[in-house]
Specification:
heterodimer, A: alpha+beta, OB fold (Dihydrolipoamide Acetyltransferase, E2P), B: about 700 residues, Four Helix Bundle (Hemerythrin (Met), subunit A), about 50% helix
């Protein structure tokens, strides 16, 4: 992997690169609070599979998402390289932490603005909304730069949708339920 | 402090004052001749005005000034205390709230409303002062006959008065002493003479008086009315009781600098020498001895007043931001978790030296936990007060005569619970006034007193607080509710049901028995909101009793705190769960024989009662084989018993509640989490939710098999 440490001055951004199923990804380093080894995960029952559960992060309970499954790339296998990146994002005006499960975390990388190409309209097999751009590395290697806020925020929307579904279900079935109660 | 922080300080202070104002007004309505209450109303309004001006909230200061003028007349007995006056003052209070809201970034206030109020106040004032003063006196005889000493309990203000006579003053034959004799009649007065520096140039010196009085600045100025032409008179109000300045005594240096007697730089230089400041200043010939003495006297006076004011306060308290408190509670939560771990480790090691300190820490932690949780407990009475206003306004609007009485206002509850409890209680009280209590004439016809009563009470019951709202109105209409419930499909038309079950259907969405929709209630929203809010607080709400023509009692039961609960730690495979201990009735064993006996139907007879159960392993899709001997924990939710089946019951557990975060806010059957002694995260079961979903799913399965 070619590093690109010269010419840091103008318009370069630092990224943390990581691997999901042998593919290189990157997110802005400012979003990442810390990187942890995998600890005991407590799964929350009856939630989508890509929500791996929660961990105890020095006394705080932090939800963890399997990024591989979230992006439809398959389950992240637990090896000695498996890491949890703790990402900070804003939800409803408050900063919250969220863990992201990845196969391995690689390094910190500086990318100039002209080293980032626009997202191809198709062909990535990923939801293009989640991608900020493609970071070029050398001649023929690309990193997928994720818009981690979008990825995680879509979770909030999913949770909200879930709420609405539950509410609709309750409304529809409340009558039947109460009738059986009687 | 930045400007916005000042704004925040004022907003907090004003909110408290406005609350006090409202309470005092409502009390005044009951006892219109009580001068002490008039004093409270006036003081609150005056302090709002004063600090409003100080913090730059000019709109508030300007508006409040008009109201204060009228209240001052009320204090003097010129304007009588009438319902009109109280209505207007309450309206003023509301207007100040909206002004405050507007000034701190909320929606703009309706300025026309303010002018309306001012105009109405002026009419009231003109009516009382110009039109018919005798009538006013007759209306409030106690005010008129109150001895003047009563008023000294009112507003004490300090003034600094400078009198610099010219030659003409003495040629007119006036004497300075006479003026100060007049001043002494107003209150506590100390006089100093500053000798002139150059007598020959026609300087007669400067007299300075420090006065503490309850009279307004005009009364003080009046003393000098005749001397004004030949004297230079300056009256400066220093501080008023209740003002920030009043309570905070000034340093001598500050006073001198403020008076312009010495430059701040010179003061600093002197201060560095670390000798008594007054001595130094006199030695250095910077300030005359008499000036230092007068300044010292002023400091002494302010200090004395401050101490008196502090003694007057019943309890000492400090104000702490809720976020700081939340952080403290979180830390104590951590401590409880770590302590549990320590106990576990010390038991494992079996080291005698470790056991004793570990036990001591356990005891201290428990004490500290109770103490810290106690800090966040507030008496529920703080919300009761706001309902009095609600009752008054609503009953006036609906033409009903309703009085609310409360008891158990001192009952303490977690602040977070109290904050969220306001809205449900408002709904319940509105319902009582709108649907429950009849119009005065109807009540008289039914042989009841014309005035309806709403009773609000709070009592501790174990780890819960019971809050009841009862009225002596017409009661719930059993048949009408039943009809509605059947129409909505909540009840079967021919079902034999108990009253309680019928009544509790009023908490279902969309059920209202009011035939007409009023601005107050009847839209069928409200009661279901009450139920969901209360359940969100881990509590329950039910119709306790209702009798036609006699009234209705609704009871809300709430846990004391939301931060730490007593839980029962259980296990399925290697996942740990915590059940709120308050919901647990008992634990029994469930053998393979028991299951076979009932052909895998999920019921078990426990002491003559058939208990249905939910197997957690199946409900949560936990993989693995179920053991031969399972545990059945029987819980009670709203008078309903059911069991949860799990692998193992581990024991009681002090549970520090942790949110699962926004991602899991709609998790099914799980309401939160806690961290166990070994650092593992255990899930807290939301039993009402488990019950609801288990039931819904069974219905779903049944329907699918029928179709």
């Amino acid at each position: 992997m070619a590093t690109n440490t010269e010419g840091v001055e103008q318009q370069s951004t630092q990224y943390l690169t990581f691997v999901l199923r042998d593919e290189g990804f990157a997110i802005e380093i400012g979003k990442v609070r810390e990187v942890l080894d995998v600890t005991t995960l407590t799964k929350i029952p009856r939630m989508p599979n890509y929500l791996s559960g929660v961990i105890n992060l020095r006394g705080s309970v932090v939800p963890v998402m399997d990024l591989g499954q979230k992006l439809g790339m398959g389950v992240i296998s637990h090896t000695k390289n498996t890491c949890i990146m703790i990402v900070e994002l804003e939800v409803d005006g408050a900063m919250v932490e969220m863990g992201v499960l990845t196969d391995s975390v690689q390094m910190v990388l500086d990318l100039q603005a002209d080293e980032i190409e626009a997202v191809p309209r198709m062909g990535t097999n990923l939801n293009t909304e989640f991608i900020k751009g493609m970071g070029r590395q050398g001649e023929d290697k690309f990193l997928i730069i994720l818009d981690i806020d979008r990825v995680l925020a879509s979770e909030g929307e999913a949770a909200l949708r879930g709420e609405l579904e539950v509410a609709a279900m309750e409304k529809g079935e409340a009558a039947a339920a109460s009738a059986s109660q009687a | 402090m930045s400007e916005s922080e000042y704004g925040e300080v004022f907003r907090e202070e004003a909110t408290e004052l406005l609350e006090e104002l409202e309470n005092a007004l409502l009390e005044l309505e009951k006892a219109p001749s009580d001068l002490k209450i008039v004093g409270r109303v006036f003081r609150a309004m005056h302090t709002i005005k004063g600090s409003g001006a100080m913090f730059g909230f000019d709109d508030i200061a300007k508006f409040t000034h008009h109201v204060e003028t009228v209240l001052d007349k009320v204090r003097d007995g010129v304007v009588p205390v009438t319902k009109g006056l109280i209505d207007l003052t309450l309206a003023s209070r509301d207007h100040i709230v909206s002004l405050l809201d507007a000034a701190t970034g909320g929606t703009p206030a309706d300025l026309a409303r303010g002018e309306e109020i001012i105009a109405a106040l002026q009419v009231l004032l003109a009516g009382a002062t110009g039109g018919a003063p005798p009538a006013a006196k007759a209306a409030a005889p106690a005010v008129a006959s109150a001895p003047p000493e009563e008023k000294t309990q009112g507003q004490l203000t300090h003034y600094r008065i400078h009198v610099k006579p010219s030659a003409a003053f003495f040629t007119e034959g006036a004497e300075v002493e006479q003026l100060f004799a007049e001043l002494r009649k107003l209150g506590d007065c100390t006089v100093f003479l500053h000798e002139p520096e150059a007598k020959e140039a026609g300087e007669y010196g400067l007299w300075e008086a420090l006065l503490t009085t309850d009279k307004g600045i005009n009364a003080v100025k009046d003393v000098f009315v005749f001397a004004e032409s030949s004297c230079l008179v300056k009256v400066v109000p220093l501080a008023t009781m209740g003002d920030e300045e009043f309570s905070e005594h000034k340093r001598l240096g500050e006073i001198l600098v403020e008076r312009g007697e010495i430059a701040p730089a010179a003061l600093k230089e002197i201060l560095e020498k670390q000798k008594p400041l007054g001595e130094l200043l006199v030695d250095a010939n910077l300030v005359a001895r008499s000036k230092v003495e007068s300044a010292l006297a002023e400091q002494e006076m302010l200090k004395r007043q401050k101490m008196a004011a502090q003694k007057a306060k019943a309890a000492d308290s400090i104000r702490v931001g809720a976020d700081k408190l939340d952080r403290l509670i979180n830390l104590v939560g951590e401590l409880v978790v770590t302590q549990a771990r320590l106990t576990q480790v010390s038991a494992q090691l079996g080291a005698a030296e470790l056991v004793e300190p570990a036990e001591q820490i356990e005891r201290l932690t428990a004490e500290m936990r109770d103490c810290v949780l106690g800090i966040r407990m507030l008496p529920i009475g703080t919300t009761f007060a706001r309902f009095k206003r609600l009752v008054r306004d609503l009953s006036t609007e609906l033409g009903k005569d309703v009085v609310m009485n409360t008891d158990g206002a001192e009952t303490e509850l977690d602040k977070n619970v109290i904050d969220q409890l306001g809205d449900p209680l408002v709904h319940l009280i509105r319902n009582s006034i709108d649907h429950g209590i009849e119009l005065p004439d109807d009540r008289a016809a039914a042989g009841k007193p014309r005035r309806g009563t709403i009773h609000l009470s709070a009592i501790h019951a174990g780890a819960n607080v019971l809050i009841t709202v009862s009225d002596d109105g017409r009661g719930l209409d059993r048949e009408k509710i039943r009809e509605k419930a059947v129409a909505k499909g909540l009840l079967k038309a021919d079902a034999e049901v108990e009253d309680a079950e019928i009544f509790n259907t009023i908490f279902a969405p969309g059920l209202s028995t009011a035939s007409t929709v009023t601005s107050v209630s009847g839209r069928g929203v409200g009661m279901d909101v009450v139920k969901s809010t209360v359940e969100g607080l881990k509590g329950s709400v039910s119709v306790h009793s209702s009798e036609k023509g006699k009234g209705t009692t609704i009871t809300i039961s709430l846990p004391l705190t939301l931060a730490i609960i007593d839980g029962l730690l259980v296990q399925v495979e290697d996942t740990h769960f915590v059940l709120p201990l308050s919901q647990v009735l008992e634990c029994v064993e469930l053998t393979r024989d028991d299951i076979a006996r009932f052909h895998e139907r999920r019921v078990l007879p426990v002491r003559d009662q058939l208990v249905p159960y939910v197997r957690l392993r199946d409900f949560f899709d936990i993989p693995g084989e179920r053991p031969d001997l399972e545990q059945l924990v029987i819980v009670q939710i709203n008078d309903e018993r059911f069991g949860v089946v799990l692998d193992d019951v581990i024991g009681e557990h002090q549970t520090v509640l942790k949110s699962l975060g926004w991602v899991y806010r709609n998790a099914i059957g799980v309401s939160g989490s806690t961290i166990l002694g070994n650092g593992e995260v255990a899930l807290i079961l939301d039993m009402p939710n488990v019950l609801k979903h288990a039931r819904l799913e069974e219905q779903g399965v049944l329907r699918e098999t029928v179709h």
